Amino acid sequence: MIPALLARCTFPPPGTAVDCAVSGGPDSLALLVLAAEAGCSVTAWHVDHGLRPGSALEADVVAAAAARWGAAFEARAAHCDPGPNLEARARQARYGVLPRGVLTGHTADDQAETVLLNLIRGAGPDGLAGIGPARRPLLGLRRRETQTLCKTLGLEPVQDPSNLDPGHRRNRIRHELLPLLCDIADRDVVPIIARGAGLMGGIRDLLGQLAEAIDPTDAKAVAQAPAPLAQMALRRWIQRETGAEHPPDGAAIGRAMAVARNETRSAEIGGGWRIARSSQRLGLKR
C-alpha cells in the first residue's frame, strides 16, 4: 500500500531533511509515515492551541508515531481563544511557531474544499487555483486513503470534534455541499475540482508573469492594460502592500479598477484599507 501511495506523492529525494506539521489527525499522521518511508529525515512538529480539554495529551500520539518511524519530535504551544475567525487565527498562530517551509498533510479533498470556499468569497485566479503544491506532498491522495493507511498500520488518529462543527463554513462544504455536488453530478467531483485548480494555477502563473510589466501604482497604465493583467497586477500589489493572508476578492478589485479608470477618486478594498488616485498615481491608505 505504501509504495502505491508514495508514487502519487511529491516528497523530496531520500535523505532530505523535512519538517512535518503533525496534529495527530489521519492526514498529518499519514504525512509523517510517508515522509519517513520516502527516506526523508523527518522532524514532526505538533502545535497545541489549548482549545480543548486534554489537547496537550494529543502531542503524545504524535510523539509515539514519530518514535515508531524514527523521526525527531518537537512540540509547541500557540494559544488561541474561542471566537470569530477561529480557523484563520489558529492557522496564523500555528505558522507563527512552525519552522519555515514546513510540510502539511493537505489532500485532494482539502483542495476541493478550498476552491469552493474561495469561490464563495469571490476570489480571483489565485483563489480558484486553490492550494499550491509547494510544501503539500499529499495533494495527489484522498482523505479516505490517509484514513485507511492509519487503520492498516494500527495508528489511532486524534479526533478533532471541531471538524464536525457546522459553525465552520469549511465543515458545511465538506459534509453538505460536496456530497450534494457529487449526487447532482452522479460522480465524485473532488478530482474534477482538484484538476481544475491545477489548470487555473497555470493560468494564474502566466498572468502573473505578464502582469509584472505593469506598474500597479500607475493609474493610466492599469486602466489601459488588458483587464485580466491589470486585475492581476492590482491583486498582487494590494496583497503585498497590505500583508493580507488572501488576495483581495473580485469585488474589491473591481472597485480598485474603477479608481484606476478615474470613475471614482477612492474606494474601500477590505481589511480597513482604501485605494485612492492622485496625480495619476494609485496609493493605499488605512
The largest β sheet comes out as: 3 strands, parallel
> Which class do the helix and strand fractions yield?
alpha/beta
**Stretches where pLDDT falls below 50 for ≥5 residues?**
none
Q: Which H/E pattern describes the elements?
A: HEHEHEHHHHHHHHHEEE
Taking all residues together, what is the mean pLDDT? 93
Overall morphology? elongated
Features:
286 residues; alpha/beta; 12 helices
Summarize this structure briefly.
The chain is an alpha/beta fold and 286 residues long. It is built from twelve helices and six strands.
Secondary-structure blueprint:
Elements: H1 2-6, E1 17-21, H2 26-37, E2 41-48, H3 58-68, E3 72-77, H4 86-97, H5 108-120, H6 125-128, H7 143-153, H8 169-185, H9 190-211, H10 219-224, H11 227-242, H12 250-260, E4 266-270, E5 273-278, E6 281-285
Parallel strand pairs: 1-2, 2-3
Antiparallel strand pairs: 4-5, 5-6
Helix pairs in contact: 2-7, 5-8, 5-9, 9-11, 11-12
